[in-house]
Amino acid sequence: MRRSDGQTLIFDADDTLWENNVLFENVIESFIEWLAHPTLDRAQVRTILDDIEAANAVTHGYGSAMFLRSLHDCFERLRERPGSPQERQEIEELARALLDRKVELIPGVTETLAELQSRHRLLLFTKGHSEEQRHKFELSGLERLFAGVHIVEEKKTADYLRLIADNELDPGVTWMIGNSPKSDIIPARQAGMNAVFIPNDNTWVLEHEILDPADEKVLTLACFPDLLGHF
């Protein structure tokens, strides 16, 4: 059964509309191989890098620059010395794909959004480095489908409440759609919105949280085009 028209659908960007974290994962795999730590295995190095990223995100936000800083910090911690100019250059070359990339839309996104936009108001609500996120959005070719774009440093309950106030939203007919339990689903529900969870196999480990299986206002879908069966 299709829900009523005229609702507000709010979309996350990274790993909801286009692939993002898989690119970082590929760089991490290359970095760990390049580092070739003599005593720590891959999982141990990854745990240390995750901890460094979590700390840097608090101070420096999200995006490619923070990630590159984290790679350098990880090298220095594990090698117990600063990187040489050549080593720093090699690390930056490993991460170059993040700067030179094209935006790869998740299958069905354009067609699905175009149909949804004919019946509903669509907003984009994403976190990260503002300039970097806007550049990806421009490259995506999706701008024409959205009535508004909101980029914040974090997506916490207070940010959702501010989004509701700024856009005069009725939470009862507003849906947050995303792949991250931590940033998209849980705080949106705490703000009184409904939510749609679309898992992505490559969701960043720091975005993982356990959702309440009894919450009837969270709809879980297998893929993006499945939205058309509900909205």
Q: How would you describe this structure to a colleague?
A:
By secondary structure, the chain is α/β, with parallel strands linked by helices. The protein is built from nine helices and six strands. The chain has helices at residues 21-35, 42-60, 64-79, 85-94, 96-100, 109-117, 130-140, 157-166, 181-190; strands spanning 8-11, 121-127, 148-152, 174-178, 194-197, 218-220. Strands 3-2-1-4-5-6 form a six-stranded parallel beta sheet, with helices on both faces. Strand 4 (174-178), helix 9 and strand 5 form a beta-alpha-beta unit. The longest helix has 19 residues, at 42-60.
Task: Please give a quick description of this structure.
This protein has 231 residues and is of the alpha/beta class.
**Count of distinct strands:** 6
The main sheet orders its strands as 3-2-1-4-5-6
Largest beta-sheet details:
6 strands, parallel
- Helix count, DSSP H or I runs of 4 or more residues: 9
Q: Could you estimate the helical fraction of the residues in percent?
A: 40-55%
Runs with pLDDT <50, length 5+?
A: none
* Terminal-residue CA separation: 9 Å
Which percent range describes the beta-strand content?
A: 5-15%
Please tell me the overall pLDDT: 93
- Multimeric organization: single chain
Estimated structural class? alpha/beta
- H/E order of the elements? EHHHHHHEHEHEHEE
Shape: elongated
Radius of gyration from CA coordinates = 19 Å
